[in-house]
What we know:
single chain, alpha+beta, nine-stranded mixed β-sheet, five-stranded mixed β-sheet, globular, RNA-binding
Amino acid sequence: MRISTLFGKPSKNEGVDYKIDSHRLLTQAGFIRESTAGRYYLLPLGIKVHDKIEAIVRKHMNAAGAQEVVMPVLHPLELWQETNRTTTTGFELMKITDRRGADFALGGTAEEMAVDLVRKFNISYKDLPFNIYQFSMKFRDEMRARGGLLRVREFVMKDAYSFSTEEQFKKIYEAMWKAYVAIFEELGMKVDVVAADNGYIGGEYCHEFVSEGENGESRYFIDEKSGYAAHEDVATFKIDDKNLDDREEKMEERKAERGPTMEDGVKLHGLPLWQQMKDVLYFDEATKRYVLAVIRGDLDVNETKLMQKAGAWDLRSATEEEIRDDLASEPGFICPVNFTKKGKETGFPVIIVADKSLRTVKNMYGGANQKHLDLTNINIDRDWQPDLEADIAMAAPGMLSPDGGKLVEKRGIEVGNIFQLGYHYTNLMHDAEYTDEKGTRQKYYMGCYGIGIGRTLAAIVEAHHDDRGIIWPKAVAPASVYLARLGVSKETTEVADKLYETLLERHIDVLYDDRDARPGEKFADADLIGVPYRVVVSDKLVTSKKFELKARGSDTLELLTQSELLAKLAS
RNA sequence: CGGGGCGUGGCGCAGUCCGGUUAGCGCGCGCGGUUUGGGACCGCGAGGUCGAAGGUUCGAAUCCUUUCGCCCCGACCA
Length: 571
């Protein structure tokens, strides 16, 4: 490919103020161009990398026994209604109506479509297991797109859906896990595999593949000794017992002229933070219930865990008015002791969820549901009873992992994930069944597996760049050689043109900078675009019949004859 | 959706508060010339219904109303 005729040439004054490196570099180097927020044009250089990533993903999916299909982008809305996901999805569905009034969702993920496809066939246990996948444009009406390709509203995703018996499932899940490890390794990426929350996808467990980096949106914890790795939403930790040997003292009311914060309580009572009760009140818009989360004072409530344990979908903080007027309590002085069981005005029920950390401490203190009144020596069971006890605590750096090592906090970009879906969809959708050995109908046990191609592309750039530009791993580089012709003499031009032809004949992918530009500009663009090798043909070098070779990311220059050069580039 | 900022040639901006000739500047682009190993220089030139609609006014990029879009921070995810 000749730079002189390339559509989408590098431009240094494009996107200069973009905050995210991959966003800026991909824009300046001419890989992408923004259309509107969260929607991008992929330019000729960009699609080359995108295609290479797809090819690698495809190779490993096929090797793992998955079979490629293509599904429609418009999904009949009935399918989403069948699984209730018109209301429960985390991303807003994009909807479309055709001229006959039929409603469709623009596909954001395709579990329902996969099930619908499979149930169009008469499948026997002999056909199991199987795993079908596709590359297709996904649409998500994200509230806020950000970071260039890192979070967009339209993107190509590889999504796979496995159908099997429950017994067969584990093997498939592991095969996908292994395939993902191989994919990201071949892509030149270091990823952590992190246990995570299933969210709106459903099912019981899942793992995210996270490319570590400052700009990542995923926060997770790792125990570097044992390898335990979990997203902050699900990370668990060992809780230390505090004062369990103490005798339970008599609960007492105490005047408390204090502010509403935890620190105010510590100061007033002169007792440790961990002995204080933290009470956080939520309202779930989906089920119209209040949820009172109670936890040890030195810990924070993990809202993802809370939602899962309490069966809530759409949790928000309760307002001060709700606390005062509907629940007859007081912000900063909420307490589960004698807490009202339903809203005075609204009649909405209250569910009290206790974190298991409350079992590690006795004689706690906290508010008394009245301004400037506290309780001391509160003990669970004796003084109050939760409706539900569960782990609803947020892990923090330095805590001990379930395996005993220290938890380290990391950030990263979620580039792929694998989900156990179980019977979630096959229970919700009719006829999602095969015939077993005895001739009876059985539900499929499912899994799904996604990789965002564009995000992966951006994550590679995040991980591989310097202040001059991108440094592509060989496997995905838009070309392997940047051939820069310096000088305009007839001889130099002829030698450079000839080398370009020779490289093409040998199927060495080359970007030929044949522009009539100054050396500085060519070197700068070579560094910006970031292909693995730069070859220079110049007026100085033609007389000696040598070519200069330099690897991107290194400062070493080599002078080589043409045969030496070709041998090196072919390897 | 909440909070903050911004829409002026392809890109980055000035001008807007306080209305008044032909709307400027830098980069880029085109032509001519001098240059050619880390983003050169000189000359000439093209390119703008000032996001959109409505209003106020003798007169609007500038004031008012409405609206659309974009960026940054939060709640979501491949």
